[in-house]
Design goal:
The complex is a heterodimer of chains A (498) and B (402).
Chain A lengths: L10 H5 L1 H11 L5 E2 L2 H4 L16 E3 L4 H14 L2 E5 L15 E5 L6 E5 L4 E4 L5 H8 L4 E2 L12 H7 L6 H4 L6 E7 L5 E5 L10 H5 L8 E8 L1 E2 L3 E9 L2 H13 L6 E6 H11 L9 E9 L1 H17 L4 E4 L3 H12 L1 H8 L2 E4 L9 H15 L3 E6 L4 E8 L6 H18 L18 H4 L2 H14 L17 H5 L17
Parallel strand pairs in A: 2-4, 3-4
Antiparallel strand pairs in A: 1-2, 5-6, 6-10, 7-11, 8-9, 8-10, 12-14, 12-15, 13-14, 13-17, 16-18, 17-18
Chain B lengths: L2 E2 L4 H14 L3 E4 L15 E4 L6 E5 L4 E5 L4 H10 L2 E2 L20 H6 L7 H4 L2 H4 E8 L4 E5 L11 H5 L7 E9 L1 E2 L3 E8 L3 H12 L5 E7 L1 H4 L12 E8 L1 H15 L5 E4 L1 H12 L12 E6 L4 H9 L4 E6 L4 E6 L5 H10 L3 E7 L2 H6 L8 H14 L14
Parallel strand pairs in B: 1-3, 2-3
Antiparallel strand pairs in B: 4-5, 5-9, 6-10, 7-8, 7-9, 11-13, 11-14, 12-13, 15-17, 15-18, 16-17
Helix pairs in contact in B: 11-12
The chains are: A alpha+beta (498), B alpha+beta (402).
The structure holds flavin-adenine dinucleotide.
């Protein structure tokens, strides 16, 4: 088992474990403190199950006051804290630390306010993503970002990861769909950013907080924007003899001014795995399959279906079907939505990657992946948010074969390096966490990373919140604050204009 | 007093590094169109980015555009228009309101002021469309954040962090924005005769419908004559914009129009009139009157705006209109700004913020231009500022609260 290097355990904290547990029980009475090894097992990993670690203690607070007291207590005693929502992170963001309190937000599970006139919902962070839509759908509304994990993942976790979904090309990521948060700083101070109004004044702390992976503060309340459900939605299933043609089709759809609600691509191995599993009726004689969903007013959807159909034909599509009912639309999606478990059936284990690339680089990246697949002797299946260039290669391996996990990880790292090399990034939606932490220097210089860490210093100067995640190395804030001064002549006197 | 006008980001880097070493403040400007917003800056030197200009990458089918910070917004918009695209967040032009010319302003300023327009309620602001930046911090260190792809969660989003920072954290040298297809056409429904509360209800209904409304504004009696050269006759109008493909727009206008008839008489503005009207709403044209009478820009929950204004009017004389479904209020004061009263009422009506976007320099030095924040937030913002600009050399005082 590969174990990532984590911050050295704080012996002083571990020595006082019993006292800390007792104090936690005072702050959170009742069932809210879990400390037995057997019960803590349930929390030893998140969605990235290759990494496991028991926390020092698990605490499940129920009120903002409790969260505030826990953080203040830990701050004063230099105790580390790892926030956790539903534990579905695929990057190890919620991986516990052996000397840290695991702060689980799942008991914050109430919707506090539904405000249709202002199109806003105020929810506690442990409410699931789908739970928000469920609460407003009777009036025809929904919450747009829809990660595939939406029945389980929490809205607080979505904020921390800036999660997306298949609809984010048209409707944006979490960052574009939240209006405000209440959060607790490591000192125990409670602050509010934004609200039901737009664009909080002052620095865009809400923007910094979104996607900060639990390193800046603990979210205790989220205000989201809800939208009216589109009048209708229809999906198209289009097969191509090559991924180049499918890629060109995607580019031309966008160039024609069409922004589909979703645009997903699957390669041959993914198509076959999905079809074997759910029998969605996918064509098996194509190299690439596109699912294009158009939503909106009836007249618009009908109009655009025609146009997308033309573009597909022009680009050599060999099969093309349009959904004519909600059942059919669901069937088109069934294979894509089941892609991960489907791949799970053809391989004992799989490892899901998450790079983003400029779309036009797709053929080059797919070719590169084929070469890497041969080099590592591991198969790979690809599902792809084609509209926004977000790749999810699934590397197939068998953890019971010695060395295969390490090989899969090395393969994955090479794929991400390739993404960065063609102008892309390490992660489109799953976050850096522990998994991609050590790859950050592939994308950022030391100065880039230092400036990011300085943001951390403004929020949590002692690095107590979720350390060991996101940054390959945590520098002391005092060190980061030092300035290296080079005095000299005023530069470019020739630029003087007055 | 020196004005630096660098032509490369390496030169910007060198200038800021020098200023940091000397602890000598810089006023950072693009075209200077928004210099009248914020506390007057006291800086020895000026860093003028207007020559750091040019689009460096534009790939329409990838929906990205990159440009240097001093690139004129007008140039970017013209280029996008030639390819049937646009900046979906509809950045407003402060020029006319602040007594300057229309059509100026740089891309760096768009991010620094986090500009947006009527489409904010459907498409977001500059912060929602920025993908990546290169910048030099007040420490004199060059850094980048984000990238050129539309979906990216690698590391903290420093690009968003610089949105609305008014040049006080770092000098941005390069920006990458997400761009989107422009709408093929548009129409506007105008409902006649509603008072502010009725208008709020009608706009809420429209925004909550499946008509995909991309602009919802209410133009009360006091301003209606100043739009479209007085083309609206008699009484207030509540206006709803519908954009998109031709057949879709026709279909939605018809459906929405039928629905809105319950609120009042509905007329439909064709494309050219509609475009012009929303530009005037965006740029606060009714108050671009060549004076420096105080103008407030207030953001609140949509349904709270009219309640707040109703109470405020009992304390002060103000002309006003609403955008953003009623959540954005533009207020032109007859006399002094009445900051305290206004902000107390905003807090009482559910919160939000007020920015004094136009006022004399003396007023801007005496009244908090930006909304004062609670102490914990003030302290956090100060810590953030210190992490970017520990010697306070970038636009010192601009965002300070009096
Ligand atoms: C099958 C599957 C499919 C997935 N599909 C998608 C997808 O389509 N798109 C996508 O974007 N992601 C996807 N994910 C990833 C994951 O679901 C998201 O990252 C999700 O937002 C995590 O939410 P969570 O509540 O499970 O958070 P956790 O896993 O518990 O935590 C994630 C991170 O958030 C922090 N955190 C959690 N709660 C808080 C809080 N209240 N305050 C501060 N920090 C907090 C944690 O410290 C951690 O760093 C998928 C995961 C799985 C298992």
């Amino acid at each position: 088992m590969s174990t990532p290097r984590m911050p050295e355990l704080n012996a002083a904290t571990l020595e006082r474990r019993e006292e800390i547990v007792a104090d936690m029980r005072i702050i959170v009475p009742g069932e809210g403190v879990v400390e037995s090894e057997a019960e803590m097992r349930a929390f030893e990993s998140d969605g990235l199950t290759a990494y496991r670690q028991l926390p020092m203690v698990v605490v499940l607070p129920e009120t903002v006051a409790q969260v505030s007291r826990i953080l203040k207590y830990c701050h004063e005693r230099n105790i580390r804290v790892v926030p956790r929502g539903s534990g579905t992170s695929l990057s190890g963001g919620a991986l516990p630390l052996g000397d840290a309190v695991l702060l689980v937000m799942s008991r914050f599970n109430r919707i506090l306010e539904i405000d249709f006139a202002n199109r806003a919902v105020v929810a506690q962070p442990g409410v699931t993503n789908l739970g928000i839509t469920r609460a407003v759908e009777h009036e025809g509304f929904y919450y747009a970002p829809d990660p595939s994990s939406q029945i389980a993942c929490s809205i607080g976790g979505n904020v921390a990861e800036n999660s997306g979904g298949v609809h984010c090309l048209k409707y944006g990521l979490t960052a574009n769909n939240i209006l405000g948060v209440e959060m607790v700083l490591m000192t125990g101070e409670v602050i509010r950013l934004g609200g039901k109004h737009l664009d909080a004044e002052g620095y865009d702390l809400l923007g910094l907080m979104t996607g900060s992976e639990g390193l800046l503060g603990v979210v205790t309340e989220v205000t989201v924007r809800i939208l009216r459900k589109p009048e209708t939605a229809r999906a198209m299933l289009i097969g191509f003899p090559s991924s180049e043609q499918a890629g060109q089709c995607v580019a031309e759809i966008i160039a024609a001014g069409i922004v589909p609600a979703g645009m997903e691509m699957m390669d041959r191995p993914a198509i076959h795995a999905a079809e074997d599993f759910v029998h969605a009726g996918y064509p098996l004689d194509v190299e690439a399959l596109l699912i294009v969903e158009l939503d909106g007013p009836q007249a618009e959807v009908d109009h655009l279906i025609e146009r997308v159909g033309e573009i597909a034909r022009r680009n050599g599509a060999t099969t093309s079907r349009v959904s004519n009912s909600e059942e059919e639309r669901a069937a088109f999606w069934a294979g894509r939505k089941a892609a991960f478990p489907a791949v799970g059936r053809i391989s004992p284990d799989y490892y899901c990657m998450d790079g983003t690339i400029p779309r036009k680089e797709l053929p080059r990246v797919l070719a590169g992946m084929r070469t890497l697949s041969e080099k590592y002797g591991l198969r790979v299946a690809n599902v792809f948010h084609a509209g926004d260039g977000n790749l999810h290669p699934l590397i197939l391996y068998d953890a019971n074969k010695p060395g295969e996990l390490e090989k899969a990880e090395a393969f994955g790292a090479d794929i991400l390096r390739l993404c960065v090399r063609v102008g892309g990034v390490l992660t489109g939606e799953h976050g850096v966490g522990v998994e991609k932490r050590d790859l950050m220097p592939e994308m950022f210089t030391e100065e880039d990373l230092n400036q990011q860490m300085r943001v951390k210093c403004a929020f949590d100067p002692n690095h107590l919140l979720n350390p060991g995640k996101m940054f390959p190395q945590l520098h002391r804030c005092a060190e980061l604050g030092r300035m290296h001064i080079h005095r000299g002549q005023m530069p470019f006197p020739d630029l003087e204009r007055f | 007093m020196t004005t630096f006008i660098p032509g490369t980001s390496a030169e910007v880097h060198e200038i800021v590094r020098w200023a940091a070493a000397e602890e000598t403040p810089l006023e950072v400007i693009g075209h200077g169109t928004k210099q009248g917003i914020g506390r007057p800056v006291q800086a020895e030197h000026t860093l003028d980015l207007s020559r750091l200009a040019g689009v460096t990458l534009y790939e329409p089918e990838e929906l990205v555009l990159a440009a240097r910070a001093g690139t004129p917004l007008a140039e970017v918009e013209a280029l996008l228009a030639r390819h049937g695209q646009r900046l979906a967040f509809e950045p407003m032009d402060y020029g006319p309101l602040l007594g300057g010319k229309a059509g100026r302003g740089t891309l760096g300023g768009v991010l620094g002021a986090n500009l947006s327009g009527p489409r904010r309620i459907a498409a977001g602001a500059a912060r929602d469309h920025i993908l990546g930046i290169d910048a030099v911090s007040g420490r004199g260190e060059a850094f980048k954040s984000g990238g050129r792809v539309v979906k990216n969660v690698t590391g903290y989003d420093l690009s968003k962090g610089l949105a609305g920072s008014w040049g006080t954290l770092a000098v941005v040298t390069d920006l990458v924005f997400k761009v989107l297809p422009a709408a093929e056409t548009e129409r506007t429904l105008a409902i006649a005769g509603l008072d502010d509360a009725q208008a709020a209800a009608a706009m809420a209904e429209a925004m909550g419908s499946d008509g995909e409304v991309s602009g919802a504004a209410h133009l009360p009696e006091g301003v209606i004559g100043r739009f479209l050269d007085g083309g609206f006759s008699g009484g207030p109008r509540t206006v709803l914009r519908v954009e998109g493909f031709g057949p879709s727009v026709a279909y939605r206008v018809e459906r929405l129009g039928r629905r809105m008839k319950a609120h009042g008489a509905v007329e439909v503005l064709e494309e050219a009139q509609s475009r012009r009207l929303w530009r005037e709403i965006r740029d606060c044209r009714p108050f671009a009157d060549g004076t420096d009478a105080p103008v407030w820009r207030v953001s609140m929950a949509p349904m709270a705006g009219h309640r707040m204004l109703d109470a405020f009017r009992r304390a002060a004389g103000a002309n006003a209109y609403y955008d953003w479904q009623g959540g954005l209020l533009w207020l032109r004061m007859e006399a002094e700004p009445k900051a305290e009263t206004l902000r107390t009422l905003i807090a009482r009506c559910g919160g939000g913020h007020a920015t004094l976007v136009r006022a004399t320099p003396a007023l801007r030095a005496a009244v908090s231009v930006f909304q004062p924040q609670p102490p914990a937030l003030v302290a956090l913002s100060a810590r953030l500022k210190a992490q970017f600009d520990p010697r306070n050399i970038l636009n010192p005082g601009r965002m300070a609260v009096a």
